[in-house]
Structures are given as structure tokens and as C-alpha cells.
Amino acid sequence: MTADFSTSPINFPHNPPAVGHTIMETSMNKSSNTTLSSENIADAPKEREWQARFNAWRKAHISDSVFLICLAVVIGLLCGVAAFVFKYLISLIAGIFLPHITDGRINWWIILPPIGGILLAGIFTRYVIHTNLAHGVGQLINDLRNKFYRLRHNISFSPIIGGSITLGMGGSAGAEGPIAYTGAAIGSNVGQLLGLPPEMLKILIGCGTSAGIAGIFSAPIGGLMFALELVKIELSVQAVVAAMAACLTSYLTIFTLHGGHSDLTFTPLDNYSFDMLPLVMLLGVFCGVYAIYYSYVAGHLDKFYKNIKNPWIRNLTGGIAIGVILLLFPSMYGVGYPILGNVINGDCTALARGSIIENLTFDSQGLMLVASGILLCKCWAVASTNSSGGVGGDFAPTLFAGGMAGFLFATFCNTYFSTDLPVGVFAYLGMAGAMSGIIEAPLMTIFITMEMTQTYRFALPVTICASVSYIIVKGFSLLAHERIPFIHHQFWFRHGHPEKTINSQP
Q1: What is the pLDDT of residues 411-432, one digit of tens each?
Q2: Is 499 within 8 Å of 126 (Cβ atoms)?
Q3: Which end of the chain is less crowded, N or C, counting CB atoms within 10 A of the terminal residue's CB?
Q4: In the structure, what pLDDT confidence band is assigned to residue 353 with cuts at 50, 70 and 90?
């Protein structure tokens, strides 16, 4: 983490914000020495006059620290509402198609929705909003690295629309990428509305993006870790407190709107013993090895799709690839939380429902075959969704894949080595193992895994599995003297997107 644990006060200079990339740094250098008096309020441009008056009043009546916390709470509230709307829209669109998946027969029609979803998402980004929404987290990291803090207004809502189309129509990805980018834009635009300088916009972007993750995963601490560990936003102690306030507000907002229910409920029915910790470590090794495979395939598929210059062909290629995979494994439709919830709670037959291989006997060997197929194909489906024109995230798919890895590991051990491992618990632990290895953010992974399921009794095995997987991936990177494209997010997103768009204010 790169948090700056200084205790210096946060100053809010009262100059108008930068109007373009070329003068932004100049504005940042001058802002610290700029003060506002009653004499120069009248000299401010008409569109900035209310900002100047508000800032003058605020400076006289509200301290900087209190003002920052108030802004963080507002941003958290907006991000919580945005996350709730996003989930609702995904569910609404998916509800048109999912009820028609029939058990015991081949659902040929399931090939069509993802093709339509990727095409519609591509049309929306290219011709409606003219904004690049692919790999939102990567774009945010790139914006912050280049000190582009004035995010476009339409990013405050367009990733939600594009993501709802993509995921609701079968795209196999997560909702966290779009909502993280949306949250960042909400924070940036709240700051721009008040005429705050770039350094303050950076803090509000950190509050917004962490609040978005906190809302979509119902994980306030996980959201904060996302901003610090993965996005690597440098924040002072007061800024970290503000980001935590935004995360908590976002979580409480969506928790209230959902009526107190979580997306992923885990009620372990099997007995877990600390004697199983050696096998938990072995599961971490398995997840780490799988993370290397996942990263390798996803990174190279990303390059493959980027090399397809015609956007229509790229959209069609990705949509067809997703459709064929869903024909084999309908359980990979969308985010996949319902299926993952079934697996970690013991209903493993849900893996093959509606599949063309559903007629296989549902004994341990048949289910292991299905889980193996899902593990092999998941990274293909995710890369085809996010790199061919869809709007989705990269975190939730790793949780789904990890659940399958834990299920496969425990079932294999029970079948061939006569162990008595709790399959649901190991599927739960695998979620942390795969996500930690693939995303390379073990702290964020540990908190998200526990918070989103509201289960803390497995904190030790979750930490062990996530840590071992992370060590395996890092060790491989060092021994091979290379970084796998997906492992390091900045590397994976560096080559950008074929359709060049600028998502910061001109």
C-alpha cells in the first residue's frame, strides 16, 4: 500500500480547477498559494461566482477536515445508490433470458444473448457516448498515473448502462469494474462542481472508487483496500478516514436498499477442523498455479482482440466465443453469484444445469469434469467479454473461478484419497485463493471474501489460502524473470484499446 501516513492538515485552495491536461499541473503548483478574498469574488467569471462565494463561506464556517468528511459521505451515498441501480438493471435484463434455460435439453438459443449484448455495448460506447469504457479499473489507474483528475461527466452513469447490457445479456464478467469507474467519476465531478483543485479531486476520486467497490461487494474495508492496494492512490491519514467514511456510507446505503440481504450468503453445513490447514495450504498452491494459467490465457486473448481492428468483427468474435462457452456451461452466465452461492452451500449439481452435458451422471467424477471445464473456460469467457467490446469487471470472475477450484480440489481429495474435506468450505476458501493470485491484491481479497459473505469464522484459512496463492504467483514471476500480463494490472491494460478515446475533460 502507498498511503502517506502524514498528519498535515488538508488545505482547500480556492482557485478554479484546471481546464485541460496541459495546464493542470500549473494549476496544482499555483493553487497552494492562491487565496480568496471578498475583493476578487466579483472578478470571478459568472459561472464560477457561486463557487467562489460558496468556498468563501465554507472556509469561514467549516474546517477542511469536516468538509472533506461531508463530501465523502455525499459521494458514498451516491455510489451506494449507483451500485444498487446497477445491480437492479443487471437483474432486470438477465431476468428476460435466465428463466428460459431449461434443464434436460440443449438450449441452443443461449448463444444469441451475449452476441447481442457485446454488439449493443459496442454501439453504445462508440456511437452514443463516444467514450471508452473497456477495462475501467485499468483506465482509472492510467488517469491517476498521468494526473488526469477531471473525469468526464458521462462516466458517472455510462459504465452502469454499458455494464448492465453486457452482464444482463450473458457477458461473463463482474460488475466491479464499471462501478469503480463510475464511483471515481462521481467523486471527480462532485469536486469539479465545487471548483476544487486537482489534488482534492484526486482524494475524492479515491473516495468514489473505493465506495463503488464497497457498495458492489458489500465490503467497506475491501473497498478501502482496493483504493490503497490495487489502484495505489496516495492518501494522507485524513484522506484515508474520508475514504473509509465513503465506503461505510456506500455499504450502509446499498444494505438498506437491499433490505439487509447480501448477494452471496454462506452458511457452512460441514464441519471444519484446524487439522485441515495443511490441505488449505495445498489448496493455495493449486489456486496459485491456476492463477498463472488464468493470467496467461486472459492476457494473450486480450492482445488477440486488440489486434482485431474492425470493431464489428471484434464484437462478433467475442460474442460468439461467449455464446459457445455458455452453451457448454450456462452457469457462467453473467456474474454467476447464484451458482457460486449454491456451490459453497453444498448444492453442487447446479454447475451443469441446462448444459449440453447435463445428462452425465451427477456423481463425483461427473461433477469434477464439469468443474474442470468451467475452470479451463472461465478465463476465455472473461477475456472475450471485457476485451471484445463489452463493459465488465475482472474481480468477480476470479471469485467464481476460485469457488470451482476449491470444489474441484476438495472433491478430488475426497474421491481418490478418502479424505473428508468439507466441499463447500473449500470452495469458499478457493474464492480467496484464486482472486489473490490473479489480481495480486491479497489484503483486498481477504476482506472482500469475508465481508461479502458476512462470514469471519474462517479468517485464518482464508488468509492462509490467499497468501500462499499470492506467494506462488509472485515466486513464479521472479523465477521466470517476467510478469504475466494479467498479473500486474498496469501491464495488462497498458496497450489500451483500439478505439482511442479520452475520458478526462479536455
Answers
A1: 999 999 989 999 999 999 999 9
A2: yes
A3: C
A4: confident
